[in-house]
């Protein structure tokens, strides 16, 4: 089991970093290291195995390690008409603009694609259709030779890709709608101020240096960044509340925080046949009720033996 899990150096490094063991880049997974490290190696293997079982489960580990579960030589997916145009024109535009940044070059190619007539685009559309037909035939033949475990893994991989794509789309939408940036921690504020002057060539080396410097700071020096972080929390709280009110007015309750969505459900301000009941005040106490309605939104007043003043 250990030899399977730690058969690669990259996998071992990921486990070591997760457990907090740094500076082990020279280690390799073989019997010599296990002999030299002795009890420490055994401890690392035990902690790693427990960690993997905790987060992904023993069944997932066995499925991942099983040769029968691996899905290899997947047919190449079809590309769009624009992708065919991009692949054809990119070398030409690059040769014409050798010093231009890749992002700017992509914008130029996109403009050139938009300027094409329907007849000019027809060639690339036809190429894309042929590619789609090729993929349909290859994927049908590919799935016919897969085992049930491999088919399940293929379906799971597709689900993960769709979830990732959905998350990226939502993140892009939140950015376009102007969702406020999250508040920063004291260390993040310290890191942003001292990153340029930090020692180290790579990003990882700089971050390691900054973390060590942050750890060595006394409480008085840290208090400044703690106060800045608290002020940033106030800023974020005010901005996110204002932004969520705008989203509710636009009917986009799905974009607000989960806790706020639960509060809206309790207050009855949700869709799906739930009508909002008029909020009333009874002896200084507020009460909000919601009833299910198959028709349009209806309002009811709650009668009380005491005086009821509608707000």
Overview of the molecule:
The protein is mostly helical. The protein is built from 13 helices and 5 strands. The strands form 2 sheets. Strands 3-2-5 form a 3-stranded antiparallel beta sheet, with no helix packed on it. Strands 1-4 form a two-stranded antiparallel ribbon. It is extended, with a radius of gyration of 29 Å. The chain starts with a helix and ends with a strand.
Task: Sum up the structure in keywords.
13 helices; disordered C terminus; 311 residues; mainly alpha; two-stranded antiparallel ribbon
Chain-wise SSE layout:
Blueprint: H1 2-5, H2 9-19, H3 31-37, H4 39-55, H5 58-65, H6 81-96, H7 102-114, H8 118-144, H9 148-176, H10 186-194, H11 203-216, H12 219-249, H13 258-267, E1 274-276, E2 280-282, E3 285-287, E4 290-292, E5 308-310
Summarize the structure.
The chain has about 300 residues and is mainly alpha-helical. It has 13 helices and five strands.
Give unreliable regions as ranges.
1-12, 18-42, 52-69, 270-311
Topology as a string of helices (H) and strands (E): HHHHHHHHHHHHHEEEEE
- Number of DSSP helices? 13
Instruction: Give the neighbour order of strands across the main sheet.
Output: 3-2-5
What is the global morphology? extended
Radius of gyration: 29 Å
- Describe the main β-sheet briefly: 3 strands, antiparallel
Q: In angstroms, what separates the terminal alpha carbons?
A: 68 Å
Strand content: under 5%
Mean model confidence by pLDDT: 74
| Tally of DSSP β-strands | 5
The secondary-structure class comes to mainly alpha
Amount of helix:
55-70%
